[in-house]
Write a structure and sequence with these properties.
Layout: H1 9-20, H2 26-42, H3 45-61, H4 65-71, H5 73-80, H6 88-99, H7 110-127, H8 132-144, H9 148-160, H10 173-184, H11 188-199, H12 213-222, H13 226-239, H14 247-259, H15 263-279, H16 284-302, E1 307-309, E2 327-329, H17 330-352, H18 356-371
Helix pairs in contact: 1-2, 1-3, 2-3, 3-4, 6-7, 8-9, 8-10, 9-10, 10-11, 11-12, 12-13, 12-14, 13-14, 14-15, 14-16, 15-16, 16-17, 17-18
């Protein structure tokens, strides 16, 4: 069907039915946005709800979280204006995606994050969830803010609580997501223990294991298990083609390619993700990506390379000037990546009121320099 027209309610319903099971893509995200506009024109709030929910889902799984954050207040307002709104469970489920992405953007203040968490906790407890799901997300929040000891304490509360609810993440997502707490805390054995059922193939879902393998690869690198790291890197490539923004996953693979001096593979991956990074607002994942790019370029230069050919498909002017078409001075690239990563780290640290990311920056650089 030609989705460009959507001239009737029936056309809109067919488009939304298509989106319900559609793969995440920028084309489908744009279609969802068009469906929102059409539903508003038809003054059909139920179809507008479905269209907005499709847009949020597409945005989240395309790692376009700011789009989802901006869209979300509409749902709370709409549900609160209707008694026993029948789609409230969807709103609460989506609230989890929103609450877990807030800390990634330095433009969202600690006060705003805390206020939304209080709203999140109130609504979930009113729904009858108990504390387990609350501590699950609080642990991740504190980890992302660099409050490591507090995050570990909340993670233990989550593990010790046996009360489950219908708003828990799936059996695969829970260990995948909570494992990041142990990764940040550098408790690599605990992290690997947490995700082992995923690595063994016993647990899987829409986002697992392809977002799990990079974590396992990173932990394996930091503990010197390079054969395992290589296996998890290859497993990641089997599940991700990096045709959409996957900046954290790419950052781990770039670090591996740098350590193994696999410069062709690293350059291809960098080229795929760089255009996305240049168009995105500052975030933790953008920082991760640029930091790994800087380390990759450091290894590239140390191996004797002076230029790098890379195609950058971006309209931004805030990037290195090419020496000639698609060819850049390697040292200039390395300097830009490092300075830009530091800038993003500092923006988040200033918001978080600590020096966690800058300290991490220095720690990983020392580890990398000793290895490379």
């Amino acid at each position: 069907m030609n989705w460009q027209n959507l001239q009737s309610i029936e056309d809109l319903e067919l488009a939304l039915e298509h989106l319900e099971g559609a793969k995440e893509s920028f084309e489908n995200r744009d279609l969802a946005f068009k469906c929102i506009q059409k539903a508003k024109a038809f003054k059909n709030v139920n179809l507008e709800f479905d269209a907005r929910m499709s847009y949020v889902r597409q945005s989240v799984f395309l790692n376009q979280y700011q789009e989802a954050i901006g869209m979300f207040p509409w749902f709370l307002n709409e549900c609160d204006n209707k008694e026993n709104y029948f789609k409230y469970i969807q709103v609460l489920w989506t609230f989890k995606w929103i609450i877990n992405s807030l800390t990634d953007f330095h433009t969202i203040s600690l006060e705003k994050i805390e206020g939304l968490f209080q709203e999140f906790e109130r609504r979930f407890k009113e729904f009858g969830t108990g504390d387990r799901v609350i501590n699950y997300f609080k642990a991740q929040r504190e980890s992302q803010l660099g409050n490591v000891e507090r995050s570990l304490e909340l993670a233990e509360r989550y593990f010790n609580d046996t009360k489950t609810c219908m708003l828990d993440d799936c059996a695969a997502c829970q260990p995948n997501n909570i494992s990041r707490v142990f990764l940040v805390a550098e408790q690599y054995d605990r992290m690997m223990e947490c995700i082992q059922p995923i690595l063994d193939g016993r647990l899987t879902c829409h986002v697992v294991p392809h977002t799990t393998f990079p974590k396992a690869a990173y932990a394996s690198m930091r503990t010197g298990e390079w054969e395992k790291a290589g296996h998890y890197v290859q497993s990641t490539y089997k599940h991700l083609d990096f045709s959409t923004p996957d900046l954290y996953e790419a950052s781990v693979l770039l670090l591996y390619h740098a350590c193994q001096k696999e410069f062709l593979k690293g350059r291809k991956l960098m080229q795929k993700q760089l255009s996305f990074a240049l168009e995105l607002n500052s975030s933790g994942e953008v920082y991760d990506f640029y930091f790994s790019c800087a380390l990759f370029m450091q290894a590239y230069i140390k191996a004797g390379h002076k230029e790098m050919k890379i195609q950058v498909n971006s309209k931004t002017t805030d990037f290195v000037t090419a020496l000639k078409e698609n060819s850049y001075d390697a040292a200039t690239l390395q300097k830009w990546f490092r300075e830009t990563a530091y800038k993003h780290a500092s923006l988040l640290d200033n918001r978080n009121r600590n020096t966690f990311l800058n300290d991490y920056f220095e720690k990983v650089e020392k580890w990398f320099e000793a290895f490379v």
